[in-house]
Amino acid sequence: MNQNIIELSHITKTFEDGVTVIEDLNLSVKRGELVTLLGPSGCGKTTLLRMIGGFDMPTSGEILLHGQDIASLPPEKRPINTVFQKYALFPFLNIYDNIAFGLKQKKLEKDVIRQKVKSVLEMVDLEGFEKRRVDSLSGGQQQRVAVARAIVNEPELLLLDEPLSALDYKMRQEMQIEIKEMHRKLGMTFIYVTHDQEEAMNLSDRIVVMANGVIQQEGTPEEIYRRPNNIFVADFIGVSNIYNGVITKEGAAKFCGQEWEITPSLPAGRRINAMVRPESVVIRAEGEDGSIVAEKTGIDGTVAEASGKVQTGIAAVVNESLFKGSVYEITAESGPFEITGYSSRGFAHGEKIGISFPQEAIHLMPYDTTMNLYEGTIIDETTADFEAFTLAIDLKNLYKDSHQDASGNLVSAEGKPISWEGQKVSLNFNPADGDLSDDESAGFVCGNIDTIIYVGDHYMYIVRGDQDEEYYVDDEWLWNVGDRVSVVVPNDKFVLKLV
Amino acid sequence: MRFRRRTLSIPYVLFLLVFVVAPLAVVLIYAFTNGQGRFTLENFFAFFKSSRTIATLLYSMWIAFVTTMVCLLLAYPTAYVLARGGFKKGGALLLLAVLPMWINFTLRITAVKELLDAVEGNLAYYPFLNTIIGQVYDFLPFMILPIYNVLLSLDQKVLEAGRDLGADPKRLFWQVILPMSRPGIVSGITMVFLPAMTNYVVLDMLYNSTYIMGSLIGSYFNAYDWHNGSMISAILLMIIAFFSWLEKKAGGDISDSSAARGGSLL
């Protein structure tokens, strides 16, 4: 028997206003699993949950529950219950009737209902609250009622839509433990939506990281944390040091100011993103002899019991040293690069230290080569149309060895006329060649800043254009999410190709 | 220029004193005195001894009750469709429903009278029916508005929770939407029932010669019997106070009943 309780296949959701929030998404959840859908707001995680619950219909694709397509079934016909974000309790019913609501719909016997409500109230620690009114309960208590109201129906699948977001930090942590316990006791399948990566780490058997309606990565909390697929996931989960780099030779990569030994085997010349988590960063104070080389033995102030080989490091200067309770968070600068590491002792601002990354702690991620790739059409001799923008082109550069004949028509080297009209072209530029400007006329296209990822010595921006297209641009200046910017790329940095 | 709160409240306090407190005091003084200016409870007992006054009270209540029920039956579906029908211009449609309120009601009743006259031939054949038609026409917007406001502000998530827990659309209506619209219904009932008890002009205009509370008071005052007339007014006040208290008990359950007061268009 198939042990997947629910399978989503090729789900796409486009709202009436034409915005696509989920694109060709596939996901399956095993019976008894606690899966978290994690992502920033607007990534489509709530829409996905609503489609599983039956409150939204997918535009296309199947939702299979035990292999049966339930995509068009209304919510009341699905053996699925939801814990809503702001509880959504019935204000006109007392606690008992709130919890009994679902059981009454099933027309169960009064005694059975009473018994079930009683035992579920015990489970959420609210014995004796039967006659209380909803508005006489605290946020945490209302949350428990919301959970009780859902699980009392013994659904095959429990959906939780950011159930703890309205609670304060301490309460949230307590409830996380309770939800985890409840999941273990009930053996029910939970799908949990949150934007809080810490919550996702604490709770999940498996985390599904989403962004822009697409699953970025699925895996156990540890997998997601240690081996993120891309820099979006690396940046979103936990604290991370991310650097752009390049493979220099077999087993070595250059990033963050020097060449490091690495484990993965990749061809030389391949561009990469390297990530090191702060707890893996080896920090050593300046030695008596003035040496600032971090070594494996006698490492000063390093929490990480660095496994494997510690490499010769780089010299850095402490910028910030924050006491975080169990560790000090040290932010240091080495040339243009910033490094964050954890240390068992604090350092003074300006203190010289050595920084090193253990070979095993260096995680490499692909450098996205499909970024900044656009397709357009030649519309006249000097212009190509890329829908979101138009670009001045020179046909002679585009067609190799071409020239204009006597009448001004473009001909090939052999003198044959070239028909360029409607020809498709691709455009690509390197993020490093781009710049951002607040002068809207300065660049070739305008958009709003969507994502900011700090990459060691500069920021990587994703600018979202007015037609929902993306531009990746590196810039050393800090902008804010939502800022209106234009993307400036020098003309000679555009790579135009015939398709 | 700055005013202190106390200074700003002077116009309202003056208005209150002249048009509410003073007349109320006069009514109460007249109600509990006799022709010689002595204190007496005689007027109070007289009201309950007279079968004519009691009959008038019951008839008033009956008219008010029927008016209220018909209003409710007409207003709830109307408000429901306007608020939840998914109209892009729901607000404009609501405006159509409450537009007549902007015209003086005697003019409106005159129009109704002409219509009924044309249909029935002689208004005198159906005095009760005509009264109810006139009253409902007069009060319907007061029932639609608060219900509309409550239905419009229903928490969508709570309705989704109802579906999620197994209620189909029909049961969702009876078990969730209707209970949640109670503040609007209660508010609408009070805004229709109490005025309907005394709205004697409608009866006069539609040739219903039976007295209701309003006409009864008028008849005493026309006969210069200030004391008994005032007492009936005072008793009516007490009835209104009683119903207001009842409303508070019935509608106060749901903290967010402010939406039910509505009247944003007025």
* Beta-strand share of residues of chain A: 35-45%
**Overall mean pLDDT of chain B:** 85
Largest sheet of chain B: none
Distance between the termini of chain B: 31 Å
Strand content of chain B: under 5%
> Within the CATH hierarchy, at the fold level, what is the topology of chain B?
MetI-like fold
Task: Name the strands of the widest sheet of chain A in spatial order.
Answer: 6-7-8-3-9-10
Mean pLDDT of chain A: 87
Task: Describe what you observe in this structure.
The complex is a heterodimer of chains A (499) and B (266). Chain A has 499 residues and is α+β, with helices and mostly antiparallel strands. Chain A contains 9 helices and 32 strands. In chain A, the strands form 7 sheets. Chain A has a 6-stranded mixed beta sheet with strand order 6-7-8-3-9-10, sandwiched between helices. The two termini of chain A are 48 Å apart. In chain A, 39% of the residues are buried. In chain B, 76% of the residues lie in helices and 0% in strands. Chain B contains 14 helices and no strands. Chain B has helices at residues 5-8, 10-31, 42-49, 51-84, 90-98, 105-120, 127-152, 156-164, 169-180, 182-198, 200-205, 213-222, 226-251, 258-261. The relative contact order of chain B is 0.14. Chains A and B meet through strand 6 and helix 2 of A and helix 8 and helix 9 of B.
Concise structural overview:
Chain A is an alpha+beta fold. Chain B has helices at residues 5-8, 10-31, 42-49, 51-84, 90-98, 105-120, 127-152, 156-164, 169-180, 182-198, 200-205, 213-222, 226-251, 258-261. Chain B is globular and about 70 Å long.
